[in-house]
Write a structure and sequence with these properties.
Layout: H1 2-29, H2 36-48, H3 52-68, E1 81-83, H4 91-117, H5 119-145, E2 148-150, E3 154-159, E4 163-168, E5 172-177, E6 190-193, E7 201-213, E8 216-225, H6 230-238
Parallel strand pairs: 6-8
Antiparallel strand pairs: 1-2, 2-3, 3-4, 5-7, 7-8
Helix pairs in contact: 1-2, 2-3, 3-5, 4-5
Length: 239
């Protein structure tokens, strides 16, 4: 049974690599003519559908697009007005600091693990840590490239790699500035999108509003958001 387990794991890994290679090939072919994230999302949707597996593979495709491509967002995102999230309270700068620290730590920890526990443990831990570093690097680049957008019908919430959802404007009850930087605790119905910065906008929604997140639909009553231009953002939503 142990051998069968490893065989099945290998088959799953090969299938994922095969499907991801097809997604990346389509992104590469269209790299000069469109938004690479959008192209990857369309390819993943065709291959995996719209369920949980499809949403997780959407996240995986965004990771590789933002980790490896020089210009992952050559064309505009959906929406009429776009708002960055990287400058607010040093969000992207703080992320870059963690990226640099982790990159410097990887070879040191690898050598120490090799000396203390052997080569196998060292390479397994280093491989997992390298994947974690790749995620941090892609998160930093996504923070710099992916905007929060507003149009006449919707608020397009994009935040780092994880968040990509649409809030109908008819579901928004009120938008207010947030002036304090106290930590926001978790609470039922609260969505916190601040990265490594701090919230400066609170969006109140109709009770029971369902937002589609990578792990499924979540009932949300309020969103605490960190954006670079909170005053202009509030004016755009209040218009």
């Amino acid at each position: 049974l142990g051998d069968v387990r490893w065989l099945l794991l290998g088959l799953v890994l090969l299938a994922e690599l095969w499907l991801l290679s097809g997604v990346l090939r389509q992104v590469w072919r269209s790299r000069h003519g469109g938004n690479a994230e959008t192209v990857a999302a369309q390819a993943v949707h065709r291959a995996f559908g719209d369920g949980l597996a499809g949403r997780l593979m959407q996240l995986e495709s965004r990771l590789w697009v933002y980790a490896l491509m020089r210009r992952p967002a050559a064309a505009p995102f959906a929406g009429e007005q776009h708002f960055g999230v990287h400058r607010q309270h040093g969000n992207a700068s703080n992320q870059l600091g963690f990226v640099i620290v982790m990159a410097a730590e990887l070879p040191i920890v690898h050598v120490l693990l090799h000396l203390a526990f052997g080569a196998t443990v060292a390479w397994v831990v280093t491989a997992l840590s390298a994947y974690g570093w790749l995620f941090l690097w892609a998160e930093y680049r996504a923070t710099r490239w992916r905007p929060v957008s507003v149009d006449a019908q919707s608020l397009h919430l994009r935040y780092g790699l994880l968040i990509d959802t649409v809030v109908p404007r008819r579901s928004i009850v009120d938008v207010q500035p947030v002036s304090h930087r106290a930590p926001l605790n978790r609470a039922p119905g609260r969505l916190r999108l601040t990265g490594m910065g701090a919230a400066n906008v609170r969006i109140k929604l109709h009770p029971g509003t369902a937002l589609r997140l990578p792990w499924g639909e979540r009932t949300t009553d309020e969103i605490f958001l960190g954006v670079d231009e909170p005053e202009r953002f509030i004016r755009a939503l209040g218009a």
